[in-house]
Amino acid sequence: PASPAASAPASPSAPATDAVTYQVTIKGGNVEPKPDVVKVKLGQTVRLTVTSDQHDEIHVHGYDVSAELEPNKPTTVEFKASTPGTFEVETHHSQKLLFRLQVQ
């Protein structure tokens, strides 16, 4: 009986390790790390955390994903990369490119 209980938690945690986590900081109008291409596999979960020193909104083109950014407060969005292609992830008001998401 101890064996199934021990193996049960391993199964649900496996998909979580498959998630792609990306963190971006916007400070003084500069994006860190510099915008690049982030490659993920079709069906993977993307977890994006953005911290900005200004009030803004992040938007993932090609997906119905957006979130308000409060100054100096990390904001995390999570979504499934369900559409293949390359999509820009940017801020709405300041129009800063954060990165390009390449789903393949």
Automatic annotation (TrEMBL):
Region forming the signal peptide: none
Domain EfeO-type cupredoxin-like, chain residue ranges per copy: 12-89
Superkingdom field: Bacteria
A Pfam family recorded for this sequence: Cupredoxin_1
InterPro entries: Cupredoxin (IPR008972), EfeO_Cupredoxin (IPR028096)
Protein name as it appears in the record: EfeO-type cupredoxin-like domain-containing protein
Organism: Carbonactinospora thermoautotrophica
